[in-house]
Amino acid sequence: MAKQNDGFVQHITPQAEDFSRWYTDVIKMADMVDYSDVKGCMVIKQYGYGIWELIQQEMDARIKETGHKNAYFPLLIPKHLLETEAEHVEGFAPEAAWVTIGGNEELAEPLCIRPTSESIICSMYSKWVQSYRDLPVLLNQWCNVLRWEKSTRPFLRTSEFLWQEGHTVHMTQQEAEEETLKMLRVYQEFAKNVLAMPVLIGQKSEKEKFAGADHTYTMEALMLDGKALQMGTSHNLGQNFAKGFDIQFLDKDGKKKYAWQTSWGTSTRMIGGLIMVHGDERGLRLPPRVAPVQCVIVPVAVHKEGVLQKAQELFLQLKHAGVRVELDERDQSPGWKFNEWELKGVPIRLEIGPRDIENKVCMLARRDTCAKDAYSLENIDRTVIEMLDDIHETMYTQALAFREEHTYDAKNWDEFMQGIEQKHGLVRAMWCGETACEEQIKEKTGVTTRCKPFEQEDLGEVCVHCGKPAKQMMIFAKSY
RNA sequence: CGGGGUGUAGCGCAGUUUGGCUAGCGUACGUGCUUUGGGAGCAUGGGGCCGGGGGUUCGAAUCCCUUCACCCCGACCA
User: Fold this and answer.
1) ipTM score here?
2) CA of A224 vs C1' of B8, distance in Å?
3) Bridge partners for A113 per DSSP
């Protein structure tokens, strides 16, 4: 990647050993974030936030389409509420931040800055749910949460982050399970059609599941350095919170019953995933559907008559056609602009100069393949829109091919170790399902279970590590 | 929390070992002219509590003590 500021060009590739350096450089140079004074809290600048706004817009439409409504609950959670569900509080206590003073007085009860909203939402649900007629409750909220993390990294693990959290209440276990799976599928479809990212979906192990859930589903994506990133989760909470918070309803049969619940979420972490799946040695590559600028127009030889005028014409034409387009009129050389927009990942660059105007064409440069060709100015808006779709498909296909190249099966421990030491990526292997075994694998290799995929294959009879009878095929990987 | 490293102009750094002239370089920024199809050229200008505090000294970016912040590797983390 071309670096500014040191007087010469230095190249860093995403596959190199200093992947994490590449990652922070891309974010910084694409002008997505700045760093605040508060440990691990980032300032998301306009360009980075523009991406989040598009993610929000697309995700929100899907959440509403599946019957959910948005609501908002308080930022502060009284201590006793957080402590109501035993497993939940144990899971979140180490990363909780507290407000203990209000005005100048010490509070009688400390208030937790929400690390997640299950407890405060459930405390309301217990009032709202009385009868089977009140069910299901299907709510979602967009908000920020705070977790006091020991080490942070922009987008992947920040103390404060923005997310969407859905919380639902149902009459039956089956209905809750269907909801949990439905939202996981929504996430998967979103990843594919909006982020151009292939994800694996499946179930988390007992050790990796959400604190307070019966079981947790996840979508996992493979990054360019061979590590896996959890991109979204969907939890079946069973009756754990219902019992803790007394969420009961009077059923048709006249009996009082505890409700069944789910929760599911996706966060700004997805932006980190985007960067680490699609980036290259020139910087960011944005999938068109989340690109704040989909097409940038760079006029060449602006001082020549008619060039700027033509560029402005094209700008309006594309804008009216619904393309997120920007005209770069800054007083810089064209080459400088080319590099900057490539760094920022803009999918299409349109170049227009005197020569093109004479030939009734313009140049279109694609960020995904770096191809640059002349296209007729006639129906240029349609050409651009079609190209945006094609870029999306190409990026998805590239990411999928990368994942497949970096997924391998291990039938025994030797193959498992060999795979981890020599290749990077996802290991598919049979596993006994026991937490003790899982912990030993982590200790020996640094690799953890990512998910038990819904699409199971029989790779053998026994656990790849301990040799006990295998219960499932599991995906293992190093993770963020 | 352990181990290692870094704090000097917006950004990237040199200078610290061996204390000494007015604290430098690149880039970015301002102005003027010429340029413009892959990071333009010349001229000129502005910008610094050398992370903070305390010491040693005639004199400290440099040595000593202390403190804060950030980065990397572990550990921790849904």
Assistant:
1) 0.83
2) 36
3) A76, A97
